[in-house]
Amino acid sequence: CCCCCCLGFLVKKLLLTVTVMRSSLSSTFVVAALLCATIVLFQCNGAEASRNSLSKTPPMGWMSWEIFRCTIDCTKYPDSCINADLYQTTAAAMAKDGFVAAGYDTIHIDDCWEADSRDASDAIVANSTRFPNGMKGVADFVHSQGMKFGLYTAESPTTCGGHIASSLYEVQDAKTFAEWGVDYLKVDGCGPGDYYSTGYTAMGTALQISGRDIVFSCSWPAYLGSNETTKPFQQMVAIGCNLWRNWADIQCNWNSLVSIIDHWGDYGAFLKQYAAPGHWNDPDMLLIGNPCITDDQARTQMAIWSINAAPLIMGNDARNMTSSTKAILLNRDAIAVNQDKLGEQGLRITPKGAQEVWARNLSDSSVAVALFNKGSTDVEYDAEKDKASVPTNRPLHISEPVHVNDGAAASITVSFSSIGITGNAEVYDIWAQKSVGTFTGSYTATNIPEGGTAFVRITPQ
After folding, report:
1. Quick check: pTM over 0.90?
2. Residues 265, 267, 268, 269: is their CA dihedral positive or negative?
3. Could you give the CA distance from residue 308 to residue 226 in angstroms, rounded to a whole number?
4. From 30, 49, 206, 432, which residue has the greatest number of CB atoms within 10 Å?
């Protein structure tokens, strides 16, 4: 309506004024202005319409944190430090090796790109030694490779790595990010939890008025504990989060990966209601391609992430991948399951145990099924202890151990009635990329190695 148009214009003017005059305004006033703006925009446009129409399928790409962490000593680690060369050589390699064509279309810079302080105009800036052409220079190169550019900040005074962040600077920083050509923004926590509701809401509003479409990745729920049923996902959808990191950070080991799979299995029925085109649950990066897991374990992650409609964001060295890693990540049938336009998150449909069945309904009435031979289930895993033990000042891929599953292979059966199919059905093996025949009533995958997963697509006939 005309009234809302006028209010929207006044709100934008108010926020720009707050940005310019922030040094003479109290933090309480700044926060109040941001919340007022959000309320007006949501009332006028509606919660869903007030934000963007991005991420209709789960995002895909590559992110630096899992392996390269906060490595800023470029003399000691010239090929693995957080600098412009890392991201530009990675973008070029992904374009050359077919990853961009397959859908992995975004390069994500995580923490430690920032300078130690803001510039004279109070703007956020990059470290000038490691990023001599600034973030816009990196963004321009990434865009030249046919890719999108992702960046990181936090809703706290400093990032988790101790660098400048965006708390109380949401409008100014969102405008700066838009000017740089940012297409995707990961927003971490790292500070006082009582600011997150305000801060993430403010950033959602700031991105909306930034003048550029920017995917909004929220880490807010990861700071709210393990009980997913107590987290304000509806508010996250309303403020424009296109995806959110739900729980513990993934670490480069099998126990961490299994703990996240178990968590999604335990809370899947609740989480499923909030996953849909435009907003997704995010179990964290793909370990695939790192020596800390085997190829069987890598196939398990690809299958379970695809069943869960999870973002496929690689956390490896994309410049140096084996042929087996490329085969897993570029498997067009696995990607098709992950990117299915129905956008329905799948579930673990059998009890938690040594062998599990996971399933996801797809838009063509077929069902994707993962038959997971987890093996031993008595491993206790402390996510916070594991995270605290990981160094952040060196590349992680130098000397990480790998857990090799040495248990028995298994046969696992999915009954067609458990996935809503009656009568005959064709079974297509996603790893082998071929049909294995027509079956009645059930299908049994045989000789699944411990730690491995059979991955099939079942189509009623």
Report:
1. yes
2. positive
3. 18
4. 206
Alpha-carbon distance of 325 to 316, in angstroms, equals 10
Q: Which two tokens stand for residue 303?
A: 């299958």
Q: What is the pLDDT of residues 110-141, one digit of tens each?
A: 999 999 999 999 999 999 999 999 999 999 99
Q: What residues are labeled active site?
A: 188, 249
Angle, CA 262 vertex, CA 282 and CA 285 arms, to 5°: 30
What is the per-residue pLDDT for 402? Answer: 76
pLDDT of residue 1 exceeding 60 = no
- pLDDT score of 387: 85
What is the DSSP code (8-state) at residue 20? H
Structure tokens at 37: 């703006």
pLDDT score recorded for residue 258: 96
DSSP H/E element including 284: none
Query: Measured at the alpha carbon of residue 205, what is the angle toward residues 25 and 198, in degrees to the nearest 5?
Result: 60
Q: Terminus-to-terminus CA distance in the chain, angstroms?
A: 50
For residue 295, the one-letter residue type is D
Contacts of the segment 435-439: beta carbons below 8 A, 24+ positions apart: none
User: Phi first, then psi: what are they for 367, rounded to 5°?
Assistant: -130, 125
